[in-house]
Design a protein that fits this description.
By secondary structure, the protein is an alpha+beta fold. The strands form five sheets. The chain has a six-stranded antiparallel β-sheet with strand order 9-12-7-2-17-16, covered by helices on one side. The chain has a five-stranded antiparallel β-sheet with strand order 8-3-15-18-19. It has a three-stranded antiparallel β-sheet with strand order 1-5-4, with no helix packed on it. Strand 16 and strand 17 form a beta hairpin. Helix 1 packs antiparallel against helix 2, helix 5 packs antiparallel against helix 6 and helix 6 crosses helix 7. The longest helix is centred in the N-terminal third of the chain and has 33 residues. The protein starts with a helix and ends in a 7-residue tail after the last helix.
Amino acid sequence: MTPGQRFVLAQRLCFAAIASLGFWALALGGELGLAGGAAAALAVAGSLWHRRPRLPDRAWLAVQVGFLAWLAAQWAVGGTHVLSLFGSLLVFVQVHRLLTRRRTRDDLYCTFIAFGQLLLASVLTVDAMFFVVFMAFVFFVIQGLLLSRMALSAEAAWDDTRGAAPGPRPDAAPVRAYAPLDRMVRLRLVAATTALAALIQVGTLLLFFILPRAQAAMLSGLVNPLSVSGFSDKVRLGSVGTMQLSRDPVMRVRAWGEDGQAYQGVEQLYFRGLALDRFDGRGWELADDRRTSLSARGGYTAKPPPKDTPWSVHVEVTLEPLDTPVLFHVARSAGIYGDFTQMEAVETDGFYVSGPPSRRAYSVYADPATPSAALLRSQDPATAPEALLASYTQLPESLSPRIAELAGEWSQGAQSPLDRVLLLQEKLKSFDYSLDQEPSRFPDPLLAFLDDVQEGHCEYFASGLAVMLRTQGVPSRIVNGFAGAEWNPVGEYWVVRQMHAHSWVEVWFPQAGWVIFDPTPTRLGGLQEAAQLTLLGRLRAWSDVGTVTWGRVMLDYGLDTQIKGLRKGIASLGDLGTGRGIVARLLPGPPDAPTSAAAARDWTPLWLLGLSVAAVLGLVALRRLTRPRGHRARRLATQIEERLLRRLPSKEGSPRPTLLVLARHAAALDEARFGTAPTVVLDYYGARFGGDEVTAAQLNALARLARLARRWRPSRVP
């Protein structure tokens, strides 16, 4: 390896990593497409090639003009958002800078551009990987700034040797110009800068948790929420089936029974969205979409659990940001509790929450048990009030009479309304389950599903049962929501994904109310049992736990969380009399609701304590690693001189003796202890004034003299 090549290689690899992290951050924000990613990879690789071919300046000017014209067209014609245009501009500028790099100052420009890319990505993404990218960026920037400072000095020295004026040069300095810096690229330097980076990162985290801040939800308008278009007040046949192709998580749940033990039947729960009551032949909608405000149902004015309504399961839900304001809850819920400033309800027992899309955490108390068949057989849904019958037996005039014929044929012999429902449900369960949505190709998709194709997904099964029951005078409606879940053994919670989107039927009975019936074939209904995970499955489970932790600790951490944590910290100190009451008045908030044992664990104080200890240890280690030996040697020499002066006072009016004179005097008085002191001082003088580096042996010898001088009491002083 030629002189200077080690330093040049370290410098270029460092700034290539910085540029790569900037591109990666934009990719996390969704602003680095396939073409941009290819250009970024070529630019980073090209920046490491010293003798790469270069485009002439006129060619680059033409490329720049063309790119700016393309940006203008995207904005004026394509309607591209200004943030996306800015992201594309940052990618182009960084690619141009990497491919035209000549000297170290270009690396500094690349760092500023990469920092801009990270700032833009911080607004566009809530991905947990962004935290890793940011921490790596801080690490490499510290390394890069140190290397660039040394490189700039070497380039200035090289220019001086050639008699050139200071300032940037059109051509890069040769590799041999950096030869004196090769010995600086050592493990000790990397360790020192790593400690500095770690200290900065720990300090950043401390400031993040301590300083008042707003939640990431304030930027939720710039973040794309998860699309669950099957959950609105108007749904076409087929919309839920398209969602079942995605594994994106929608919610994570934990559940307990009344006894506080873990509830084992989460995969059998139905998470209800909206019930739809009007059918037009190709889809369902809400006949009455008016909403009633229920602000007292959630937030600060209600305290769980329900007092007047029975419940058997307590479910804690963490709902991801969705493109719908629907609040999913367990069927037959007795109470919903969360920090909602307002809730709204519709007539079909659906709930909405106001505000922009954001992650929501709330508790649901429900009694999902199905009434017994004996109780239901004794009831006749046709005895429902006229208004209820009119709403829930509505059918379009264009409905094919063949559907009513099929309903009569398939339920023939039923001895009760319940038996009629069960016979129709059993017939539908004999159909095939498919996500290909074949019935949608026909003019009448529901008739095609029942009488011809006999294959479809849950929305066709639910619509078929509800419509056939209505032809028989039985009040019914379909419900869109989620059924089924996957167990995460690492985080010990259930994950409900888009693939668990489901539709089912609710039938009204006079005494039992709305009862769930599910005509979808159970073997393909999406319900999954908890199973032991493979290695890949366990890695995915850990990844999901990391995503949850990132969202809870970083994205959802705001001023209200800080106040709650402070209140809990004060409460954990015990009753401090009036002081506690004063602080409680200064930090007003909702009354603390009882939570489960798993949810009650708050690790924030331990996190802060651990970060504080790590910061102190990092500061101590950094000081020891970065302090030059020469500085430590001078400090030790000063200590020795001051201590010997106190032990060996000079005559009044005489000049102050030097360290060497004091060392010789001490050696004359105490040969056993200070016999080598003059030699140690002479070696130190040679290193300090001769331009050599103080060695570790010389530093240890000075430290030994300092300890001896501190404890020494001469037996005689002339």
